[in-house]
Write a structure and sequence with these properties.
With 163 residues, this protein is an alpha/beta fold. 40% of the residues lie in helices and 21% in strands. The chain has one domain: Maf protein (Alpha-Beta Complex), CATH 3.90.950. It has 6 helices and 5 strands.
Length: 163
């Protein structure tokens, strides 16, 4: 993450997160790096559908695709980038090997990730299978995937719709 923060600082760019199942883990990984305050705008943990909607995710998206979908992750990433006027927004939603009685749709072990690039108006999306034995290990797997994606987007300048 240090390399990403350094590159964002050099480019005078900013980043924000809207996380669900990772519970602020990505924001934590960013702010663990000295100098992150130069680039990190805001981190929202939106566990409930109500707060995803309050932050700007369309209820129609949740109704049509469910909260556990690529479409919701994309909307989360763009919404947080727009809300904070950040160059990049990260949206994360999914289930870490558990059943959600409030949202009984979708697979119980898939996490959807989206990184929105405001300048290019593009999304980089992927999924991560939550196949590790513990919740903590699954969160770390998701965070490591996001770091890999951010390196590709921020450091090397790549962008693609789906990995």
């Amino acid at each position: 993450m240090k390399e990403i923060i350094e590159e964002l600082t050099k480019k005078h760019q900013t980043i924000s997160t809207m996380e669900s199942c990772t519970g602020g883990g990505v924001a934590n990984a960013i702010t663990n790096v000295e100098g992150a305050s130069e680039v990190f705008q805001f981190g929202a943990v939106t566990y409930s559908n109500d707060y995803k909607i309050k932050m700007g995710v369309s209820p129609k998206t949740l109704e049509k695709y469910t909260v556990y979908s690529e479409e919701t992750a994309k909307e989360m990433s763009k919404t947080i980038a727009t809300y904070t006027n950040s160059d990049y927004g990260i949206g994360i939603t999914g289930k870490l090997n558990r059943v959600d009685k409030n949202n009984p749709f979708g697979k119980d072990n898939i996490v959807f990730i989206s990184i929105y690039d405001k300048e290019k108006d593009t999304y980089t999306t992927t999924t991560v299978e939550a196949d590790q034995p513990s919740r903590k290990e699954n969160k770390e797997k998701v965070i490591q995937t996001i770091i890999k994606l951010l390196k590709e987007i921020v450091v090397t300048g790549g962008s693609y719709e789906r990995i």
